[in-house]
Amino acid sequence: MSEFKNRITVSIYDQHYTIVGQDEPSHIRYVAGLVDERLREISRYNSGLDTSRKAVLTAVNIMDDYVKLKEDYERLLHQLEAEGQKHD
Amino acid sequence: MSEFKNRITVSIYDQHYTIVGQDEPSHIRYVAGLVDERLREISRYNSGLDTSRKAVLTAVNIMDDYVKLKEDYERLLHQLEAEGQKHD
């Protein structure tokens, strides 16, 4: 992490995007690569959709993963708290 | 969760999408609502972009959240394992 903003150009689904943020360039490239993969995967099964609709469906799928991971995360957090209380 | 597939129509950024999956309709609507919010937020700061680019950037932001939450999740998992070993 740096206090300066990084400005990185990535390619997603054959389009260039300039991403500005405080994250490391390697992190930004990794995240962009994952989105590119997911978009290409959606496209294989929905070739009739335009790019905008494919990208929205990709965002929906990633958000679905996020919400489910968040539930798992909170379950783990409660488990860790209970574990801590058990040995107080 | 049901073994049957649900078929839900949601509205994201004023477009309708039919989402098919085994998740509860309420979960699908919740996830779609979150994506709609994020897409509108991106649009406020990038009004010059077309919808397809806005949607890809939305997907990038959500994936960024996912990757960071995944790191937190794994940190917690290791902590829980260490906690368990401490009291073995």
Q: What would the keywords be for this entry?
A:
septation (chains A, B), 2 helices, about 90 residues, Cell_div_ZapA-like (chains A, B), cell cycle (chains A, B), homodimer
Radius of gyration of chain A (CA) equals: 18 Å
- What number is the mean pLDDT of chain A? 92
Strand order of the largest sheet of chain A: 1-2
The stretches of 5 or more residues of chain A where confidence is low (pLDDT under 50) are: none
User: Structural class given helices, strands, pairing of chain A?
Assistant: alpha+beta
- Give the helix level of chain A as a range of percent: 55-70%
Count of strand segments of chain A: 2
**Regarding quaternary structure, how should these chains be classified?**
homodimer
Subunit structure (chains A, B): Homodimer. Interacts with FtsZ.
InterPro entries (chains A, B): Bac_CellDiv_Activator, Cell_div_ZapA-like, Cell_div_ZapA-like_sf
Subcellular location (chains A, B): Cytoplasm
GO biological process, one term (chains A, B): septin ring assembly
